[in-house]
Amino acid sequence: MQEVRADGFDRLDPLGAASADPTIAPLPLLEPELPQYPLAMVEWHDAWFDLDLESPDGCRQDYLVHTVGFLVSEGPRFVSLAQEVLPDGEGLRAVTHIPLPIVERVIRLQRSAESHDRQASPHLASG
After folding, report:
1. What pLDDT, on a 0 to 100 scale, did the predictor assign at position 47?
2. Which of these, 37, 42, 50, 127, could form a disulfide with 108 (CB 3.0-4.6 Å)?
C-alpha cells in the first residue's frame, strides 16, 4: 500500500517531524500588488420571497443589499463585482452580475493616504 499526502506534495514527512513544535514568528509585511480592478460597494434592491405575504401591497420597498468586490464591469445592462482575482491572469471567481435598473448606487472604495498603515480603513468616495 502506498501512502499519499492529501495536500498534493510528493512525499510524506517522517512521523517524528509532525510532532516537532512549530516556530512562531510574525509574518512579513508585504505590500500587495494592486489589482487592475477597483474595489467598490454596490447598493441594490435584491429580489426576495415571503410565503406569508398575502398581497403585493405588503412588499418591502426598502430591501437594500450591499455587495463589496472588485468592479469588473459597469456595462449598459449590469454592474459586475468579482470576489476573487486569480493569479497569473487566470481570471475571476465568484462574479455577481447586478441588473442596472435595481442598482441604487455604486461607491468606489479608495485606499487611505496612510496606505502602509494596516490599521487605516478605506475611505468611501462617490462614483
Report:
1. 77
2. 127
Is residue 40 within 8 Å of residue 109, measured between CB atoms? yes
Of 97, 94, 96, 75, nearest to 85 (Cα)? 94
| pTM listed for this prediction | 0.57
Helix (H), strand (E), coil (C) string for 45-70 = ECCCCCCCCCCHHHCCCCCEEEEEEE
Distance CA 107, CA 42 (A): 6
**Helix, strand, or coil (residue 117):** coil
- Tell me if residue 43 falls in helix, strand or coil: strand
d(CA 39, CA 41): 7
Residues 70, 38 contacting (CB under 8 angstroms): yes
Ranking 19-23, 86-90, 107-111, 113-117 by mean pLDDT, the lowest is 113-117
Is the Cβ–Cβ distance between 81 and 71 less than 8 Å?
Answer: yes
Residue 72 has pLDDT above 90, yes or no: yes
> Per-residue b/e over 98-110, b at no fewer than 16 CB within 10 Å?
beeeeeeebbebe
CA 28 to chain centre: 23
